[in-house]
Structure formats: C-alpha cells, structure tokens
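Report of the visiting student (M.T.), summer placement. My assignment was to run the structure pipeline on a short list of targets and document each run. The first record concerns Putrescine-binding periplasmic protein.
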Amino acid sequence: MVISRFKGVFMCAALAISVPSMAAPKTLTLFNWTDYLPPTVLDEFEQRFDARVVQNYYNSNAEMFAKLQAGGDRQYDVVFPSGYFVDRLKQADLVQPLDASKLPNRTHLLEEFKDPSYDPSGRYSMPYQWGVTGIAYDASALPELPHSWGALFDADANPDRPFGLLKGDGQFTLSSACAYLGNGFDCPARQAWIDAAKVVQPTMKRPNYVGFVDALAALDQLSRGVIDVGVVYNGDYARKKAESPEAFKNIAFFVPSEGSQRWVDTMVIPKHAPNPELAHQFINFLSEPGVAAQISNWTFYSSPNKDALDALKPILRSAPVMPDAAVRERLKYTASLDAETLQFVQQLWTELRAR
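After the run finished, the structure tokens were exported:
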C-alpha cells in the first residue's frame, strides 16, 4: 500500500511536468478619451495577439498630462493626446520615440499626416483620428448669421440669441479670436495673443453669452433650443444629424471663412510604458486600413489612413466630415508653443477668465 501511494505521487508529479503551463495573456493598458474605440476592434486585437486590453479615461488633454506627470507614464502603454500636446509631452520627457521598423502600416497615411508640424516625421506619434472644429447654429433663428468667427465675437452678428464658447483649453478660443482679427489661427506673435484676448473678454460679458460648453453638450443644447450658436466638431455634428434628423433639421454647420482648427488625435507610448512591444503592435494594428475604417465608421470622425477611405460610409466621404479642398486649405493644426509662449498664453487665459 505504501508503494502504491508513492507510485500515485510520482505519476502526479510526472503529469504536472509533462503539461506545459498556460501563460497569462499580456495586458495592454490604454489611457484614452471616452467612447473612442469600437469594442469589436478591441476584441479582434485581444484574440489576434493573445492579449487583454484595459482602458482608463480622461476628459481633457490637461487631465491626461497631469496624470502622466504624476507617474502615469509607468502605468499606461498607449495614450491618445491631441496633436498639439505631443510636443508638450516630449518636452516633459513623458513619451518615447516610436520604432518605425515596428510600424509598417505608417505607409497607409495620407501625405498630409506623414510630416505634421506638431511632430515632424512622426517621430513620437501616429495619427489616429482627425476632424475640423467649426460652428453649429440654428438657421431658423439666425438665418443671416455670417459664416465667420464673427458669429461668436461680433455682437452685431448675434445681438440677442444665446451662444457659448468651447469648453477646454483656452488656446483654441484665443486662436479663433486671432483668426477673426486676420492674424491667422496659429496666432504668430505675442501681441496677436493680447489682441485676441481683447476680443474674447467683451464677448464673455455680453448678456446672451451662456458660458463655456463642451462640444457634444453644445449639440444637445442646440437641438433643445438652449443655445442657438456653439462650437462643435464636424464628426459629432454629422453623427447627431444622421441619428436625429428631426431634432437637427434646422441646425447648420460651417467652417469659419477666416480658417479653423484641423484637430488630430494621436497615439503615443509613454516614456516608461510597461509593455512597449505590445504597444507598438497595437498602434500598428489600429493603422491597418480595414481596422482604421471600422474605427471611423464607429466614431464618425475622419481617418488619416488613405487606404481606409473607400471602406468608409458614404456620409464620411463628403462634407462636413471630409471637407472639400477649398476648406482644407483654410485649416491649421493648433500651434505647438514653446515653453515661454505657452506660459504666457496660459497666464493670459487665467487672467481673462478671472476678470
């Protein structure tokens, strides 16, 4: 009986040795905007790469930046900052250069995204989605509203209908006032920023100004008649109009004649990412034409992937989601500011809001 008992032990030990251990799936941790990745795309990545994807979310670039500074650069593998924040992350030593040899799908990019001003040669980032910031308004309430930033900043253009400015980074609002004054959306000089502030300040004092409104909230408020003019993103406008045509039948959209923001959200890898190899695989995966098309068909934003365009829904291949050539010539990336100018603009904005 003793022999039998030890024989059983030896058999169990041999079995344990002969069965290979099952490795736990690798975990990829993302720091992303809310509702910005289709669940089907995440499922496909997990299955193909035997990985598990975990997402945490932020509501602004400033929140994302603060989190990475507080140690998040060691927690997350891929982050999705707006283009003009890439240089800030680089200057703060919070992101690592991308390994181009691991991103062969970069060849699918539209030419205009291969060497962006915010990140020359795409050294630190890969574009993810892009779009245009414009103005949506109730055409039945303001049929003669000029297609200009004057829709916000000229009291004569809208003397009494409620309107809001875009909530978030003050650089955008000051840049739009800069464009309104004829100084360009990229606001090239310190005096231009000061002149822009002098336009924004009285705008915020007008009785029909309701305050700063998030772009999605602005669309909701427009559909309910809470405001009649607001700053929105073209993809959000197109999606809302397609989903609720009756609620948005009188809501129109335009890109101001003086020019506006071509925004782009990117993918970067934090300086001390736990899984940089898997992060590169994920970025390259999202840059496959078929996957890129899935993403844009779900978000209603434009894809920077030229080989994905034919697979997009028809509504995404025309204005306002895909602006025509004339409008695209008026678009500018939000300027990446040097440290001294950035500090000056942030201080100017703080003082402006405090008055």
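The chain has two domains: 26-130+264-325, 131-262+335-354. Residues 1-21 have pLDDT under 50 and may be disordered. I thank the supervising group for their guidance throughout the placement.
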